[in-house]
Amino acid sequence: MEIVVCVKQVPDTTEVKIDPVTNTLIREGVPSIVNPFDKFALEMALQLRDKHGGKVTVISMGPPQAAAALRECIAMGADEAVLLSDRAFAGSDTLATSYTLSQAVRKMGNVDLVICGKQAIDGDTAQVGPEMAEHLGIGQLTYISTIEFDGEKLIAHREQDEGYDVIEAKPPLVVTIIKLAMDPRLPTVKGTAKAYRTEVPVWTAADIAIDPKFAGLEGSPTLVKRIFTPERRGKGEIIQGDSKEAVDVLVDKLRQAKIL
Length: 260
Ligand SMILES: Cc1cc2nc3c(=O)[nH]c(=O)nc-3n(C[C@H](O)[C@H](O)[C@H](O)COP(=O)(O)OP(=O)(O)OC[C@H]3O[C@@H](n4cnc5c(N)ncnc54)[C@H](O)[C@@H]3O)c2cc1C
Description:
There is one protein chain. The protein is of the alpha/beta class. The mean pLDDT is about 95. The chain has 6 helices and 13 strands. About 30% of the residues lie in helices and about 25% in strands. Flavin-adenine dinucleotide binds near residues 61, 93 and 220.
């Protein structure tokens, strides 16, 4: 199986703070990590490769420092990595990001599965995977927690609020992965040594035949008008008891607040 895993380098959001004056994220000094859902995507890809053979390639679109995230994936067991980096990609929204990633998948050719995390913990849109399927003109399985491959088709569990769907589909496919029951594997010593010996190839816009109309700022129809911290609401109040009196107290309060 030829599998591509899309990996985004994200700020560790547990460390991100908001500037109270400008209401923007303070990113300085915040460590970068591999998006946690992408580690689960990689774990799923590695399990499929270990069982059915083939190759796992990790790709990321980002600045040169995103190569560190790809090296971490090689240390975990990925076979190859490619960084997509070019000033032409700057300012990409999800549509332009998914177009750029798709062009890299097209260049690789003969890819059976593209596996993404469900969402990135900084952008949080969960759009890139489904948009890639559209750009590539192939099917998509989203919110997936388990995958079996019978040599012809995938049998996957898609999580729902109350249980899961069992879906069958034939590759090529884009799959997005939720948090799995097991933790992603840790980097091995051998893998870490390989990661530091590996020169991560960088593909530019020209390498993947990017049409500038669809990439970077020019290819991004989304406009962010304002970013702000939601105002804190007042404290809630719990009215104790399950008697009629407790209901009367609640009704009084709602009347006072002119809600009733
Ligand atoms: C108008 C606008 C301008 C923007 N400008 C910039 C900018 O200048 N610089 C900037 O850094 N961001 C910019 N962004 C943010 C950027 O659009 C998102 O970070 C990116 O499109 C991914 O969206 P997301 O984080 O919601 O990912 P999701 O859709 O939540 O991610 C789902 C999955 O897709 C894959 N994935 C997502 N992004 C990547 C990636 N880059 N590489 C590999 N795999 C990926 C991962 O597997 C991830 O788990 C901008 C956004 C907007 C709306």
